[in-house]
Amino acid sequence: MNNRVIDIHLEKPYCTFDFTKFSRILNSRNSAEFIKAAFTGVKKESNLFTVSTTQGSYSSRILVDATGWRASVAEKLIPGYVHRDMLSFGIETEVPYRREESFHFFYEPDFLKNGVSWLFPCGEFARFGVASYTGETRLQGKLDAFLDRFHVTRDKIHRGFFFYCLKKPVMEGIFVVGCAQGQTLPLTGEGISRSITIGTRCGEIIQKRSWTGRLLSMKARKSIPGWH
Ligand SMILES: Cc1cc2nc3c(=O)[nH]c(=O)nc-3n(C[C@H](O)[C@H](O)[C@H](O)COP(=O)(O)OP(=O)(O)OC[C@H]3O[C@@H](n4cnc5c(N)ncnc54)[C@H](O)[C@@H]3O)c2cc1C
């Protein structure tokens, strides 16, 4: 923090993992049909949703939006759900680097107003990134200047928005999970484990309640004696 170093000891150790490999393993363990398609529209008639995609249309009484910051489905049904005025933006690159063992966040307003930079070690590599809490997207120059300090050069860039607000998780009868709902932590930009945990929990609730035929609103649930 502007030349001052503050050590924060984490309660739990952090881990890094191969996200693609992880997603493939997770997907191989469920029996759901997985369709790769772009979402194009949604209609709600009575209690039935019909979702249009580039691979056809699908109808269901239950719908979950996990489309990341775009919240594509929720935004179509509830215009303004995305809250474009409350978005942060980050870019990062992963390069060979073995000189650090712990996370480093850099808060230097003279270098980056309303933002942070980071260095995350992951095995033989490290991820270097910069984020703007005001949603500034022209950050490549800042990233290059940050990398220069460590005498490394940019590789492929990963970039994206994340929210600094939590939004309603159930709207117009659809569940919204992960970054779509604002689950990425606003300070650190960490959201993978939260999105997985909350997505899993949402799936459990849907399965449990739909098996019992009792997918009810909170108000209706509270009215059932012994319901939890
Ligand atoms: C630069 C950067 C670095 C980050 N680093 C970390 C980190 O180190 N650790 C961490 O925990 N988190 C990190 N995050 C946050 C993390 O990426 C998010 O919290 C996480 O990806 C949210 O998961 P999600 O499944 O909700 O959304 P996403 O991962 O964004 O997935 C949403 C999916 O929906 C798809 N989609 C969107 N619209 C449509 C449409 N119309 N049709 C079809 N598909 C659509 C998208 O293509 C995407 O595949 C970082 C974020 C950024 C921007």
Overview of the molecule:
The chain is α+β, with helices and mostly antiparallel strands and 228 residues long. It has two domains: 104 residues, FAD/NAD(P)-binding domain, CATH 3.50.50.60; 79 residues, D-Amino Acid Oxidase, subunit A, domain 2 (D-Amino Acid Oxidase, Chain A, domain 2, 2-Layer Sandwich). The chain has five helices and eleven strands; from the N terminus they run αββββαββββαβββαα. The strands form three sheets. It has a five-stranded antiparallel β-sheet with strand order 6-7-8-5-9, covered by helices on one side. The chain has a three-stranded antiparallel β-sheet with strand order 1-2-3. A three-stranded mixed β-sheet has the order 4-11-10. The longest helix has 20 residues. It is elongated and about 60 Å long. The N and C termini lie far apart (45 Å). The C terminus is likely disordered. The structure holds flavin-adenine dinucleotide. The site of flavin-adenine dinucleotide has 26 residues, from strand 5, strand 9 and helix 4.
Name the strands of the widest sheet in spatial order.
6-7-8-5-9
Helical percentage? 10-25%
CATH class of the largest domain: Alpha Beta
| Number of helical elements | 5
Rg of Cα set = 21 Å
The shape, in one word, is: elongated
Distance linking N and C termini: 45 Å
H and E string = HEEEEHEEEEHEEEHH
Counting structural domains, the number is 2
Structure summary:
It contains 5 helices and 11 strands; from the N terminus they run αββββαββββαβββαα.
Which key phrases capture this entry?
27% strand, D-Amino Acid Oxidase, Chain A, domain 2, binds flavin-adenine dinucleotide, 2 domains, 3-stranded antiparallel beta sheet, single chain, FAD/NAD(P)-binding domain, 5-stranded antiparallel beta sheet, 228 residues, alpha+beta
